[in-house]
Amino acid sequence: MIPRPIQHLLLAALYDAFDQWASTFAFACRKGCATCCTRSVTMTSLEGDGIMAFLSQENRRAELIGSAFLPSGKQTGQCTTNTFVGAHLRGEPVEEAESWDLRPCPFLKEESCSIYPVRPFGCRLFASLDSCAASGVAEMPPGYLAGATALLQYIEHLDNGGRWSTMMELLAGMNTGQAEDYGEPTAPIPGFLVAPDERALVEPLLQGLLAREVNGQTFAQWLQAARP
Ligand code: SF4
Question: What is the residue range of 192's domain?
Answer without folding.
Answer: 4-226
